[in-house]
Write a structure and sequence with these properties.
This protein is α/β, with parallel strands linked by helices and 220 residues long. The chain contains 11 helices and 8 strands. Helix content is 53%, strand content 17%. It starts with a strand and ends in a 5-residue tail after the last helix.
Length: 220
């Protein structure tokens, strides 16, 4: 499973990339707005840091405007994947743009039926939102399982990106459910490293090492 960071913060991206485990980035208008830079400039900066799929989302809501904006976004860098919402206009634009060779991430997916529409429209990625379903007392991870099962049965090549992941458990469950990609905030990626037994074990190893070599006289 690929790991994407769901952030537009360059500092977070640089730190995570230094760990050697980041495969791509997802952004949205809210994340870009927090950084206070024009989207073209900021997406270029992200592409300079991460060599992988970089999702950049349109803000248009009508198909014709989505087409125009999507083409502009796709020209920013070869790694840009254009994000479109799972609406009638978004699916219409996805179908046309996919035929042009522009890779599309269809976002805001909340049902298997919607995921079928994205795949039929030729989406490169579909993004089901796990955490937001959990928020309304649905089981978000069941959606991932349903979509991956349907896609496998019918041979769809659209990748399933588990989005709105809010904990390390969400990431592990998404992997178990067959998601091709998990996108997460920096803090969730960082939390995947943590386990008290790892810390305790390392502390004990170092104590044992230091005790032996501090007590052993140096050979002269």
């Amino acid at each position: 499973m690929k790991f994407f960071l769901d952030t537009a913060n360059l500092g977070e991206l640089k730190k995570a990339v230094s760990w050697g485990i980041v495969d791509g980035v997802t952004t949205n208008p809210s994340l870009i707005a927090k950084e206070g830079r024009p989207i073209t400039e900021h997406i270029k900066a992200i592409c300079d840091i991460v060599d992988g799929d970089i999702s950049a989302e349109v803000v248009s809501t009508e198909a014709d405007e989505m087409l125009k904006e999507s083409r502009e976004l796709s020209r920013i860098h070869k790694n840009v994947v254009v994000k479109l919402p799972l609406t009638r206009d978004g699916i219409t634009a996805c179908s046309k743009l996919s035929k042009e060779g522009i890779r599309i991430n269809v976002t805001l997916c909340f049902s298997p039926g919607q995921a079928l529409l994205a795949a039929k429209a030729g989406a490169y990625i579909v993004s089901p939102f796990v955490g937001r379903l959990d928020d309304i007392s649905a089981i978000g991870m069941d959606l991932i399982r349903s979509i991956t099962s349907i896609y496998k049965t019918h041979g769809f090549t659209t990748q399933v990106l588990a989005a709105s992941l809010r904990s390390p458990l969400h990431v592990v469950d998404a992997a178990s459910a067959g998601a091709h990609i998990a996108t997460m905030p920096f803090k969730v990626l960082d939390m995947l490293f943590n386990h008290p037994l790892t810390d305790k074990g390392l502390e004990q190893f170092l104590k044992d090492w230091n005790r032996v070599f501090e007590e052993t006289p140096a050979v002269r």
